[in-house]
Specification:
Elements (H helix, E strand, L loop, with lengths): L5 E6 L16 E5 L4 E4 L3 H8 L2 E3 L4 E3 L6 E4 L14 E6 L5 E6 L3 H15 L18 H4 L4
Antiparallel strand pairs: 1-2, 1-5, 2-3, 4-5, 6-7, 7-8
Length: 148
């Protein structure tokens, strides 16, 4: 499975679905770009370290730094009031262009700062622009054709 397809990694809680009885001891859920789920035996922290993902320690959720995320403040509504006090909605687009999201306990300002910081730290060093030979007082090559 290509890492480019992984949007984020979160802890897997087998008690959340008592009817699902896996043979392996899964520790994490990989949430793919299209919201498909893949289970892994690695804890989120270990998976994040091994694959270069950014880990939000408060949530124990790691995100793929190659994905473009939007960050929004989350406020519960009458129709959707989760038990946990989520503060942030992390959004991304799947391969079909549909919007997907993940709720986080981490403050939106912290999420933005950490995502920006991790982007800067992992950005490749900028290459120096190739310098053209100096043309001196005669001007550019483009202008040479107009001189008599």
């Amino acid at each position: 499975m290509p890492l480019e397809q992984v949007a984020c990694v979160e802890p897997f809680d087998p008690a959340a679905n008592p009817e699902f009885k896996p043979e392996k001891d899964f520790k994490s859920r990989l949430i793919m770009l299209n919201r498909d789920i893949v289970l892994t035996e690695q804890p989120p922290q270990e998976f994040a370290t091994e694959h270069g993902l950014h880990l939000f320690t408060e949530d124990t959720v790691a995100v793929n730094q190659a994905i473009v995320f939007r960050v929004e403040m989350f406020e519960p509504t009458e129709g959707f009031n989760p038990a946990k006090s989520y503060k942030t909605r992390l959004k991304w687009r799947d391969l079909a262009g549909n919007e997907q999201s993940k709720l986080l306990l981490t403050e939106p300002e912290t999420v933005i700062a950490e995502l920006l910081k991790s982007k800067v730290e992992t950005a490749p060093a900028a290459k120096r622009a190739a310098k053209w030979p100096a043309r001196g007082r005669s001007g550019s090559r483009r202008m040479e054709g107009f001189r008599t």
